[in-house]
Amino acid sequence: MEKVEERTKSILKSDKIGLIVVMVFLCIVLTMITHDKIFATKDNFINILLNASLVGTVAAGETVVLLSGGMDLSIATNIAFQGSLVAVLITGGMQPAFAIILTLLCGIFTGAINAFFISEIKVPPFITTLGTQQVFKGLGFLVSGGSAVYIQNQKFCRIGSGKLFGIPNPVIQLLIVFLVIAVLLNKTVIGRTIYVIGGNEKAARLSGIKTRRYNYFIYMLSGFCAALGGIVLAARMTSGQPTAAVGVDMQAITGAVLGGTALTGGVGGIGGTLLGVLIMSIFQNGLLLLNVNSFYQYIANGLLLLFAVTFDALRTKYKKS
Questions:
Q1: Does 50 map to a domain?
Q2: Model confidence at 14: pLDDT above 90
């Protein structure tokens, strides 16, 4: 009986309970105020999950980066670059499977570039990824020739438009990514070490942990997630576009921080990120259904980011006091 009470108390103290309450409340309000209660339809919920799939995929990788005390601002332009690359490879005659593998390897390589400057040259993550953000943007335009590259291969496009047991493929891919990273963070030595590095990198290094190796792994994982997001996005749009995914980096960070991942590192988890991304997707879907002007949507999304960062700062201050 005491164990049940302790478990109940721990659940109630969890940040995830608050996120679930917010998500349910948001769904109830939007159901009531949208025309003909269109929000609470099956098709709309599928749209919410589809919209969450891209941000969620890269937010999963961003969560690992933030947990280590780093930051990756290059994921949005990396998505566009990798989406353009896979489109060019396929339209050039390469088999989709080989094009996907090559693009994923390219994504891993872009992560290694970030890790090199951060670990070897000692450039702060913020500056490094801000610089590579522009590099990947330029590469996306170079690869695509500055315009959309349309894909006519139906087999590849089914990755973005197909369904399995009635569930869209991008949603299945999102759930697989979150499951894999959840196991990585919670059930492996690598995951526990990432938390240690994020808590105090200097102490981790002095205790014998090879932090440089872990930095490479972390940013290569983020690059892999960006490449995967780019591939699925290209399949959904049936084209690779060098201007795609604008603002996804900020959305990914917002989702992770909203879900409880601290910007200072060492605190958070992938489950909270999933909830944070879903809340963002529900919020944005509600704005669209209410026909809110796109200019106001930018303001609302910016305020949501500020709220997430402020909440993180207050939570950190509360835990230290």
A1: yes
A2: no
